[in-house]
Write a structure and sequence with these properties.
This protein has 91 residues and is mainly alpha-helical. It has helices spanning 3-42, 47-87.
Length: 91
Amino acid sequence: MDSNAVLDIGLQGLVIAAKLSAPILVTALVVGFAVSLLQSITQIQEVTLSFVPKAIAVCLALLVAGHWMISEMVAFTHQMFEKIPSLLGGG
């Protein structure tokens, strides 16, 4: 296995990690921004007001994007297992 193969696998791993975490992170970012905007407009400074909506939104994002996330991870895993013979020099 040469260094190009290692770099390629590492790059693919980073890309799949970014793709899988994007729906959750973007959802938390948008809801967090909206809640902080609401808090700054209304002068309400309650800690649970920022946490609870974000937690609910992330749970909803997991419900919506969960199937896609699992199928992407399974496809990536199959792709990595298919590469094993060529990486070991057998194919």
